[in-house]
Design goal:
Number of domains: 1
Strand order of the largest sheet: 7-4-3-12-11-10-9-8
Number of strands: 12
CATH superfamily: Aldolase class I
Radius of gyration: 21 Å
Structural class: alpha/beta
Distance between the termini: 46 Å
Number of helices: 12
CATH topology: TIM Barrel
Strand content: 15-25%
CATH class: Alpha Beta
Order of helices and strands: EEEHEHHEEHHEHEHEHEHEHEHH
Length: 291
C-alpha cells in the first residue's frame, strides 16, 4: 500500500526521502534561554533538520493538587514551582524563533493544551507535535488540526484503538505517526521496533521513531525498518539536573547518530539484485565456473 508524504517546511517526510531528524530540546533547557541556544547550536552543527520544544499552560495541564505537591528543585519547594520555572513564555519563544531563523534551523513544539497551540501558532511553525500523553485529548487534537498544519503524533502508552480514534480526528492527509516507548530512559527490550511496520500497514502514513533509550543503535535500526523520521532528546550533559537529561544524547551522541542514519540510508540502496559495475573486476579475478 502506498505511503503518503508530508511536507514540513522545505523538507518532505516520507519513504524514499532522507530521514527527518528532530533534536528534542523539550525542557532540557532548564528554563534558560542561553542553554536553549547552546542546544540549538548542537542540533544545527550535528545536521539535524529541526529542534523541538514543549509548551504548556501550567494551570490547565496540571491540577491545583498536583502543583501543590512537595518537590524540591532549583525553582522552589513544590511541583508548581518546578513546572513554572521550566516553562518558556511567548516573549522567550520569540527569542528562540529569531535565533533559529538567524542560524537557519526549523523549530516547532509539542503543545499540551489549546492556549499553548495558539501561542506557538503566532510564530507560524511548519508543523505541530502531539505528545503521547495528549493522544486521547480530543479537544486538543481538533484544535491543533484546525490550524491546517502537518501534525506529528507520538503513540507511546497507547492502544491501537486509541490511535485509531486520534487518526480519525486528525485525518491522514498531513499526519506523521511516531512509534515510541514512553519511559525515560527506555529499556531495549521494550522498544518493539517492529511496531513501525504495524503502524505503516494500518494507517498508510509516514511513520517515524521517537527514542528515549540511552544508546544509538536502535534509532539506526528504526531507519532500516522503515522509519522516515527520527526524534531524540539532546542535552549538554546527561548528568545535568533535570528529569529528561538521562534519556538524552550528548553532543557527541547526536553527531554520531546523524552520521549513522545517513550511512544506513546510503547502505539500504535498491531492492533490485544485480551485478554491480564495481563487482565486475572482482568477477574477472575471482569467479570460478564449474565444468
Amino acid at each position: 500500500m502506498a505511503i503518503s508524504e508530508v511536507r514540513v517546511g522545505d523538507k518532505i517526510i516520507g519513504d524514499r526521502q532522507p530521514s527527518y531528524i528532530i533534536a528534542e530540546i523539550g525542557i532540557n533547557h532548564n528554563g534558560s534561554i542561553e542553554l536553549a541556544k547552546k542546544l540549538i547550536n548542537i542540533a544545527y552543527s550535528a545536521g539535524c533538520d529541526a529542534v523541538k520544544f514543549q509548551k504548556r499552560t501550567i494551570d490547565i495541564v496540571y491540577t491545583a493538587d498536583e502543583l501543590a505537591k512537595p518537590r524540591e528543585s532549583p525553582f522552589g519547594e513544590t511541583n508548581g514551582d518546578l513546572k513554572r520555572g521550566l516553562e518558556f513564555n511567548a516573549e522567550q519563544y520569540a527569542t528562540i524563533d529569531q535565533y533559529c531563523k538567524t542560524i537557519g534551523i526549523t523549530w516547532f513544539a509539542s503543545c499540551w493544551d489549546e492556549p499553548s497551540v495558539d501561542i506557538i501558532d503566532e510564530f507560524d511553525p511548519p508543523c505541530y507535535k502531539i505528545a503521547s500523553a495528549s493522544i486521547t485529548d480530543e479537544n486538543l487534537l481538533r484544535h491543533t488540526a484546525a490550524k491546517g498544519k502537518p501534525v506529528l503524533m507520538s503513540t507511546g502508552m497507547s492502544t491501537l484503538a486509541q490511535i485509531d480514534r486520534a487518526v480519525e480526528i486528525l485525518g491522514v492527509d498531513q499526519l506523521v505517526l511516531f512509534h515510541t516507548c514512553s519511559t525515560y530512559p527506555s529499556s531495549y527490550r521494550d522498544l518493539n521496533l517492529r511496531v513501525i511496520s504495524t503502524l505503516k500497514d494500518r494507517y498508510s502514513v509516514p511513520v517515524g521513531y521517537s527514542g528515549h533509550e540511552t544508546g544509538l543503535a536502535s534509532s539506526s535500526a528504526a531507519v532500516a525498518l522503515g522509519a522516515c523520521a527520527i526524534e531524540r532528546h539532546i542535552t549538554l550533559d546527561r548528568a545535568m539536573w533535570g528529569s529528561d537529561q538521562a534519556a538524552s544524547l550528548e553532543p557527541n551522541g547526536i553527531n554520531k547518530l546523524v552520521r549513522d542514519i545517513r550511512l544506513v540510508e546510503e547502505a539500504l540502496g535498491s531492492p533490485e539484485k544485480v551485478l554491480l559495475p564495481c563487482e565486475e573486476p572482482v568477477v574477472a579475478k575471482l569467479r570460478r565456473i564449474g565444468r
